Amino acid sequence: MRTQVAIIGAGPSGLLLGQLLTRHGIDNIILENRSADYVLGRIRAGVIEQSAADVFDEAGVGARMRKEGLLHDGTQICFDGRRHRIDFRALAGKPVIVYGQTEITRDLMEARAASGATTVYEALDASLHDFSGDKPRVRYRKNDQDFEIECDFIAGCDGFHGVSRQSFPAGAIRNFERVYPFGWLGLLSDTPPVSEELIYIHHERGFALCSMRSHTRSRYYLQCSLADGVEDWSDDRFWEELKRRLDDEARAKLVTGRSIEKSIAPLRSFVAEPLRHDRLFLAGDAAHIVPPTGAKGLNLAASDVHYLSEGLIEFYRKGSPAGLDRYSERALARIWKAERFSWWMTTLLHKLPDASDFDRKLQHTELEYLVSSEAAQKSMAENYVGLPY
Ligand code: APR
Ligand code: PHB
Question: 74 CA distance to ligand 2 centroid (A)?
Answer without folding.
Answer: 14
